[in-house]
Amino acid sequence: MGGEAFDIARALKGLRWLLARDLVLILQLGVIWAVVAAIASMLSEYIPSEVQGFVGLNQLVGPFFVAAFTAAALSTNQPTLSNALKAGRLLYVQFVVVLFITFVLLHLGLKLMVLPGIALAILVSCAPSVLFREDTGIMGALIEGARLVLPRFWRVAACYLVVTVPVMVFAGLILLADQGLSLGVSTLVILSIVGVFAQVITTYLGAAIYLEATHVSRVQSV
């Protein structure tokens, strides 16, 4: 189906519906992720910089929670914390690989120019959802994800623009407030919370775009 079949408003409404449905789970799993991310960041100080340049602890932690949140977002029933954690465990290795490849592609794109990096990130944004929902394998998920996005690239890009810019502004304001008000909360904790918040929204947006693109969404109008 072509780009004209992709409804931006419906995709964004689907995102809101998914976030509202899973709010309790998001808070539960988000807290766990933020704590683990903060611990990983603290432990990273003891890892040689040469090793960190290749792979950081948070790059090993992230795929578990991205897999868990992807499974939750694409669940046809009310997702539970135990099921999300189980999905994270079962899909961990596959998500490590697919997210690492995505990271490399994004890094190479940004090395060339900023726009190619952003374009590549958008093209592979549905890969985690494809990996969870379809029996394609890792490379198949990247290829199928790009195939879903490419015909409707500008509409998908518009979704990311509408969602990620406010998220980035909100995250920036939180960091500024922490620095300006001296809230007494560790900067590391604040950074972990802000990072998790942004990644959760991005993960759910990828799922909503996948559902809209494949027209198998169970998302209902509010």
From TrEMBL:
Transmembrane segments: 23-43, 55-75, 87-106, 112-132, 153-176, 188-211
Residue ranges that the Swiss-Prot or TrEMBL entry lists as coiled coil: none
This protein's UniProt keywords: Membrane, Transmembrane, Transmembrane helix
Superkingdom of source: Bacteria
Keyword flag tRNA processing: no
Matching Pfam families: UPF0259
Keyword Transmembrane helix: yes
Name used for this protein in its record: Glycerophosphoryl diester phosphodiesterase membrane domain-containing protein
